[in-house]
Amino acid sequence: MKPILSLAAAMALGVCTAVSGQDDALPKGTALPPPPNAGATPDVPVPLMQAITKRLSADDLEGRAPSTAIEPKVLDYIVEQFKAAGLQPGNKGQWLQPVPTVEITGDHYTPLTISGSKLSFRFGDEYVAASYRVAPKSEVRDSELVFVGYGINAPELGWNDYAGLDMKGKTAVILVNDPDYADEGESGLFKGRRMTYYGRWTYKFEEAARQGATAALIVHDTFPAAYGWKVVNSSWTGAQYYVQKANDGMDQTVANGWVQKPVAEAILKAAGKDLAGLTAAAQKKGFKAVPLGLKVSFGFDNTIRRAASNNVVGILPGKTRPDEVVLYSAHWDHLGRCTPDKTGDDICNGAVDNADGVALLTALAKMNAETGPAARSQVFVALTLEESGLLGSEYYGANPIYPLDHTVGGVNMDALLPVGPSKSYTMTGGDKSELGDLYHKALAARGLGDVPEDHPERGGYYRSDHFSLAKRGVPMFNIERSNDLVTGGVAAGEKAAQDYTDNRYHAPADEYSDAWDWSGIAQDAALYYDLGRELADGTMWPNWRPTDEFRAIRDKACASASKGCKPK
Predict the structure, then answer these.
(1) What is the spatial distance between Cα 326 and Cα 565, in angstroms, rounded to a whole number?
(2) Non-local CB neighbours of 372 within 8 Å, separated by 6+ positions
(3) 226: left (phi over 0), alpha (psi -120 to 50) or beta
(4) Burial of residue 123, with CB atoms counted within 10 A of its CB: 0-12 exposed, 13-18 middle, 19 or more buried
(5) Phi, psi dihedral angles at 13 (to 5 degrees)
(6) 386 CB contacts (<8 Å, ≥6 apart)?
(7) Three-class SS string for 428-458?
(8) H/E element holding 307?
(9) C-alpha–C-alpha distance, residues 407 and 327, integer Å
(10) Rounded to the nearest 5°, which phi and psi values hold at 150?
C-alpha cells in the first residue's frame, strides 16, 4: 500500500479528454453499427492480451501507483486500448471518472485505559485504532463499554445483537466472524464455516456507526479471523485510505480498532465477566448485549492528505434496452515502487495483479464489439485504488454513472494466473445469487466442472472490487479457475499458485514473461464472455438467494425503480 500523492500536476496535463457530447448518465444515442462479422462467435484475442499486459507491467510505468505523476501515462494507454477495442467514452462523454480520496495517518497514540481499574494497553502490540472521520484529532473519553456479541443486525435472519440498545456515547466490543464460524459445512444460519458479510470487520464497524456508537473494538482471535495479529498490526499502524465524502465521514464512529484476545479477556474479567462464556452465549439466537460497567479512553492525532485518482469507463451501447447495464470490471492500479529485492529492483510491476485483468477486460470489450451490439448496454470499467482498499469501486458504487437499479449484474477480473486451463471452476462466495444458474449453465456448455471454494472461512468474496457493487445489491460474478489443471492435475495447479504467492505476489518479481502460458487465461476469457453476453442479451434480472445478506437491498432498489429491475 503506497502513499497517495497529489494528482494536481497530473490533472493539469488534461489527460484523456472528452470525445462526445453525451449529457445523460444512461446512453441515449443509437447503438454502434454491427461489424461485418456480427453474430459470429468471437475468437479470444490472446496477442492483444499479451501486448496490454506487457505494456502495463513495463518498468517505465513504475508499478502503476495511483495518484502519482505516472498515472496520466497509464490512463492514456488504457483509453487508447479501449478506443481500439470499439468502446465509446462511458461517463457522459468522458473516459474518466475522478475518484477523490483522503489519506489519514494516526500518530501520538495514548494507551487504551479502562476506568475503575489499573488496566492500560499499548498501541501496536495490544491494540490498534484508526478513524474514518477526517478530523485532526480522534479522542474517545470515558465511553461506556458494551459487549455486543458479533455485532450483527440481520433482519432477514431474525438476528439483532443491538436490540433494545442505545449506543450513543458508548463503545461496542465485538467478536470477529459469524456466530457459527466453527461449524463444518454451510448448514448454519450464517452459512457455517463460510464467512458471510456479517463476519467481516468492515461490516462490524459500519453497523456500529449506524447504531450511533462512539467507537468499536473488535476482539482479535486468529482462527475465526483467518489471520494473526501481525496482519492486523501491519494493516492498522500506517496510513489509512478512504473515499472522500461530503460530510468528511462525520456519520462514522470516532474510532475503530482491534484488541488482542488477552486484552479483551482482561477487560471482561475486570467487569466480572468471562470472554469464553459470553462468546458461547453470543452464538445463540436471542443473545442480549451485556453492558460491562466499565469505561474506556484512548486517542490519537491525525495527519490528513487529500488526493485524486481516476477510473476509466467505456461503453458498448445496447441495441434494444440501452438503459439496462451489464458491468465488467478490473483494477488497473498496483503498488508502484516497493521494497527492493536482492537485485535492487524496487518496481512492483503487477503483471498478474492486475495488468492481465485489464488485458482481459479489454479483450472482452473487443470480443463483444465484434459480435455486435447486445440488447443491453455493456460497461467496461478499469478501476483505481483497489490495492488501497477497493476505493475505485467503492466510489463508483456510491456514485454510479449508471444507476444501480438499472445495473443487471456483472463480472470482475483480478489476478489471472498464467498457467494452463483447468478442468473446473469455483465460485467465490458460493451460490449467493441467481447468477449461479447462468454460471452452471455456462460450465456445462463448455464441459467444465464446479468445485467448492478453498478456505471459505476467509471471506474471499468480500475482498475484491465486485464487492463494492454487491453490497449495494448488484449481483456480481467472482469466479476462478480451480487448481485442477488439465495438464498435471491438482498437484501442478497448487504448485503454480503457491509459487506465485510465495515468490511474486506484491513483489518486484510479478513481471511479464514471453514464456507465459496463456491457455488458461484464454479459457477464462471464453467463460467470462459467455456469462456477460448471456446477461447482456437476456431479459433476466438476477437477484440474491432469499437468505443472502444482500437480498433486501436489491429488493428495495427494484421495488422503487421507475425502470430497470422489477420485483418478482
Answers:
(1) 12
(2) 34, 35, 38, 39, 319
(3) left
(4) buried
(5) -75, -15
(6) 331, 333, 354, 392, 393, 414, 464, 465
(7) CCCCCECHHHHHHHHHHHCCCEECCCCCHHH
(8) strand 290-316
(9) 7
(10) -90, 0
What confidence tens digit (pLDDT) does each residue in 352-397 have? 999 999 999 999 999 999 999 999 999 999 999 999 889 999 999 9
Residue with cell 518496481: 347
Domains of the chain: 8-23+33-85+317-560 (3.40.630.10), 103-304 (3.50.30.30)
**CA 541 to each of CA 376, 409, 435, 566, 568: distance values in angstroms, whole numbers, following the listed order:** 12, 8, 9, 8, 9
13-42 confidence digits (pLDDT tens): 233 333 333 333 333 322 333 334 334 468
What SS3 class is residue 246? coil
- The contacts of residue 301 (CB under 8 Å, 6+ apart) are 106, 107, 108, 136, 137, 138
What is the helix (H) or strand (E) element at residue 369, kind and residue range? helix 356-371
| CB contact at 8 A, 221 and 173 | no
Q: What is the pTM of this model?
A: 0.85
Do residues 432 and 545 lie in contact, with contact meaning Cβ atoms separated by under 8 Å? yes
The residue ranges of the chain whose pLDDT is under 50 are: 1-40, 567-568
In this structure, the dihedral spanned by the alpha carbons of residues 519, 521, 522 and 523, taken in order and rounded to 10 degrees, is 90
Q: Are 477 and 442 in contact (CB under 8 A)?
A: no
C-alpha cell at 68: 502519482
Cβ neighbours of residue 280 closer than 8 Å, sequence gap 6 or more: none
User: How far is it between the farthest Cα atoms of the chain?
Assistant: 79
